[in-house]
Specification:
With 150 residues, the protein is mostly helical. It has a single domain, classed as Winged helix-like DNA-binding domain superfamily/Winged helix DNA-binding domain (Arc Repressor Mutant, subunit A, Orthogonal Bundle). It has a two-stranded antiparallel sheet. It is globular. It starts with 11 loop residues before the first helix and ends in a 46-residue tail after the last helix.
Amino acid sequence: MRRISLRDAACPIARSLDEVGHWWTLLIVRDAFNGARRFSEFQKGLGLAKNILARRLRQLVENGVMELRPAATGGAYREYHLTDKGRGLRLVLIALWQWGEDNFFAADENMAIMVERATGQPIGRLKLTAQDGRALEPEAITSAKRHPVA
Protein backbone atom coordinates (compact mmCIF):
# COMPACT_ATOMS: atom_id res chain seq x y z
CA MET A 1 0.00 0.00 0.00
CA ARG A 2 1.35 3.39 -0.97
CA ARG A 3 1.71 6.03 1.72
CA ILE A 4 -0.24 9.26 1.37
CA SER A 5 1.84 12.41 1.69
CA LEU A 6 0.81 14.78 4.47
CA ARG A 7 3.38 17.41 3.43
CA ASP A 8 0.71 20.01 2.60
CA ALA A 9 -1.66 19.30 5.51
CA ALA A 10 -2.78 22.25 7.62
CA CYS A 11 -1.94 20.31 10.80
CA PRO A 12 1.62 20.54 12.20
CA ILE A 13 1.34 17.01 13.64
CA ALA A 14 0.45 15.60 10.22
CA ARG A 15 3.36 17.39 8.52
CA SER A 16 5.75 16.25 11.25
CA LEU A 17 4.62 12.64 10.91
CA ASP A 18 5.06 12.89 7.15
CA GLU A 19 8.73 13.66 7.86
CA VAL A 20 9.55 11.28 10.73
CA GLY A 21 6.44 9.14 11.23
CA HIS A 22 7.96 5.69 10.89
CA TRP A 23 9.16 4.28 14.22
CA TRP A 24 12.55 3.30 12.78
CA THR A 25 13.17 6.94 11.92
CA LEU A 26 12.77 8.10 15.51
CA LEU A 27 14.88 5.20 16.78
CA ILE A 28 17.66 6.21 14.37
CA VAL A 29 17.42 9.78 15.71
CA ARG A 30 17.47 8.41 19.29
CA ASP A 31 20.65 6.47 18.53
CA ALA A 32 22.21 9.57 16.94
CA PHE A 33 21.56 11.46 20.19
CA ASN A 34 23.30 8.59 21.98
CA GLY A 35 26.40 8.95 19.82
CA ALA A 36 25.86 6.68 16.80
CA ARG A 37 27.47 8.22 13.70
CA ARG A 38 28.32 5.45 11.25
CA PHE A 39 25.98 3.21 9.29
CA SER A 40 27.43 0.15 11.04
CA GLU A 41 26.73 1.65 14.48
CA PHE A 42 23.08 2.27 13.61
CA GLN A 43 22.77 -1.20 12.08
CA LYS A 44 24.34 -2.92 15.09
CA GLY A 45 22.30 -0.93 17.62
CA LEU A 46 18.96 -1.33 15.88
CA GLY A 47 19.35 -4.73 14.21
CA LEU A 48 17.56 -3.23 11.23
CA ALA A 49 17.92 -4.68 7.72
CA LYS A 50 20.59 -2.77 5.81
CA ASN A 51 18.29 -1.82 2.94
CA ILE A 52 15.67 -0.35 5.29
CA LEU A 53 18.30 1.47 7.34
CA ALA A 54 19.89 2.88 4.17
CA ARG A 55 16.48 4.14 3.00
CA ARG A 56 15.66 5.76 6.35
CA LEU A 57 19.07 7.43 6.64
CA ARG A 58 18.82 8.70 3.06
CA GLN A 59 15.39 10.19 3.84
CA LEU A 60 16.70 11.83 7.01
CA VAL A 61 19.50 13.45 5.00
CA GLU A 62 17.16 14.49 2.17
CA ASN A 63 14.73 16.02 4.68
CA GLY A 64 17.48 17.95 6.47
CA VAL A 65 17.21 16.06 9.77
CA MET A 66 20.71 14.62 9.42
CA GLU A 67 23.74 15.47 7.32
CA LEU A 68 26.71 13.48 6.13
CA ARG A 69 30.19 14.69 7.13
CA PRO A 70 33.68 13.32 6.61
CA ALA A 71 34.68 10.97 9.43
CA ALA A 72 36.21 12.71 12.43
CA THR A 73 39.12 10.26 12.20
CA GLY A 74 39.97 11.50 8.71
CA GLY A 75 39.27 8.10 7.16
CA ALA A 76 37.30 7.33 4.03
CA TYR A 77 34.06 6.86 5.97
CA ARG A 78 31.35 9.46 6.27
CA GLU A 79 29.35 10.02 9.42
CA TYR A 80 25.75 10.98 10.07
CA HIS A 81 25.18 14.02 12.27
CA LEU A 82 21.95 15.62 13.43
CA THR A 83 21.27 19.08 12.02
CA ASP A 84 19.57 21.82 14.05
CA LYS A 85 16.28 20.47 12.68
CA GLY A 86 17.21 16.98 13.89
CA ARG A 87 18.37 18.18 17.31
CA GLY A 88 14.95 19.82 17.66
CA LEU A 89 13.46 16.32 17.85
CA ARG A 90 15.04 15.83 21.30
CA LEU A 91 12.00 17.32 23.00
CA VAL A 92 9.69 15.03 21.01
CA LEU A 93 11.71 11.98 22.01
CA ILE A 94 11.72 13.02 25.67
CA ALA A 95 7.93 13.45 25.57
CA LEU A 96 7.57 9.95 24.06
CA TRP A 97 10.06 8.59 26.60
CA GLN A 98 8.14 10.00 29.56
CA TRP A 99 4.82 8.84 28.13
CA GLY A 100 6.34 5.36 27.75
CA GLU A 101 7.62 5.44 31.34
CA ASP A 102 4.13 6.29 32.58
CA ASN A 103 2.25 3.74 30.51
CA PHE A 104 4.37 0.72 29.66
CA PHE A 105 6.52 -0.15 32.68
CA ALA A 106 5.58 -1.67 36.01
CA ALA A 107 6.76 0.20 39.11
CA ASP A 108 9.36 -2.51 39.89
CA GLU A 109 10.51 -3.02 36.29
CA ASN A 110 14.02 -2.00 35.20
CA MET A 111 14.19 0.71 32.55
CA ALA A 112 16.57 3.31 31.25
CA ILE A 113 15.98 6.84 32.50
CA MET A 114 16.83 10.27 31.09
CA VAL A 115 19.52 12.06 33.10
CA GLU A 116 21.31 15.37 32.82
CA ARG A 117 24.70 14.66 31.25
CA ALA A 118 26.64 17.03 33.57
CA THR A 119 25.18 15.80 36.88
CA GLY A 120 23.78 12.33 36.20
CA GLN A 121 20.56 13.42 37.89
CA PRO A 122 17.16 12.48 36.39
CA ILE A 123 15.59 15.23 34.28
CA GLY A 124 12.32 16.87 35.29
CA ARG A 125 8.99 16.00 33.76
CA LEU A 126 7.89 17.94 30.71
CA LYS A 127 5.00 20.27 31.44
CA LEU A 128 2.53 22.17 29.33
CA THR A 129 2.60 25.87 30.12
CA ALA A 130 0.80 29.00 29.01
CA GLN A 131 2.85 31.83 27.53
CA ASP A 132 2.98 33.44 30.98
CA GLY A 133 4.43 30.24 32.53
CA ARG A 134 1.27 28.94 34.22
CA ALA A 135 0.96 25.13 34.21
CA LEU A 136 -1.80 23.83 31.94
CA GLU A 137 -3.62 20.52 31.95
CA PRO A 138 -3.98 18.82 28.54
CA GLU A 139 -7.73 19.43 28.60
CA ALA A 140 -7.12 23.20 28.72
CA ILE A 141 -5.54 23.15 25.26
CA THR A 142 -7.18 23.17 21.85
CA SER A 143 -6.11 24.04 18.34
CA ALA A 144 -7.00 27.21 16.48
CA LYS A 145 -6.30 28.49 12.99
CA ARG A 146 -3.45 30.92 12.62
CA HIS A 147 -3.75 33.30 9.76
CA PRO A 148 -0.49 34.43 8.17
CA VAL A 149 0.43 38.06 8.60
CA ALA A 150 0.21 39.83 5.25
